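The methods section describes the discrete structure representation at length, but only in general terms. Since the whole study asks how a given chain folds, the encoding of that fold should be made plain. An entry of this sort, consisting of the sequence and the corresponding backbone structure tokens, reads as follows:

. . .
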Amino acid sequence: MGQAHRHFLTLLLAGVSGLAASPSKAAPTVIIVAADQRPAFEQVIDGFIDGLKAQGLTIVRRDLDPDVVAHDPLAADLVLALGSGATAAVLARAHHPPLIHAVSGRPPELPPPGVGAPIVAGVSPIPSFADQLALVRAVAPNLKRIGVVGRTGELGFLATARSLPEAQGLTLVPLEVAGPEAVAAAILQAADQVDGILAGADPRLWNGNTLKAAVISSLRVRRPLFGMATSFTKAGALASVAAEDYPGIGAEAARLAQEILAGRGQNLPRLVSPKRSLTSINLVVADRLGIRPTRGALDAAHEVFQ
């Protein structure tokens, strides 16, 4: 595709699959709603369309302000919403077509499922916890006590996470914080209890100021920070795993779309993890902390800062 400034685009993707239109029935229509043309959205859209090429669909692209989305008819069999604003605008409607959301910043709050409730599914904007643990083991296998930063009352999942294959040999230490302003202090206070710090994949905790303070604290106590986005590594984390394979996210959204359009949407999980995560490593930080990332981790990294 590659057209970064298209505002309205209609594509007819002809095919011979079970979803293809018959002479007596119009092709199913999918509307893609995005509030802007950021590169990540463009890559998701390309992956989504590539994944549906044989499905006989009419795909309509609309770049709309969220306020416009709230009043647009959205006459379609399915909506793909990209970004938090577009997703929230669709969900705010009293009635909307089946919805797939992606690149939403953080998973949206959804109404409880039920009979007659709109179908909503999405591709998670954050990496899985298993992938985060795998990163720690791959980059710095000598670290054993890992502090996991999370909001107060929301780290209960660690009890079951300890049984993950990726957690074997690691001691997971919960570092509960009331909010973003408490993250740096929690890292300083935990220095004697942990060998490394894992940024819990909760976007509500992390902003530019929080990340800067967390990096400064981790370097001060010489405990490497592991992040949930490439921006963490660039800012001074030792390494990060990120749900930033945007063509792959688009392909996964296409798979969800096929299930919904085939009448199997009610059986879908509300949120699926991306099939592939991207890793990044900061060798400047590694050198400062006296850590030598493994050759395997370096070879597998999508980006290495040095």
Remarks:
- The longest helix spans residues 246-261.
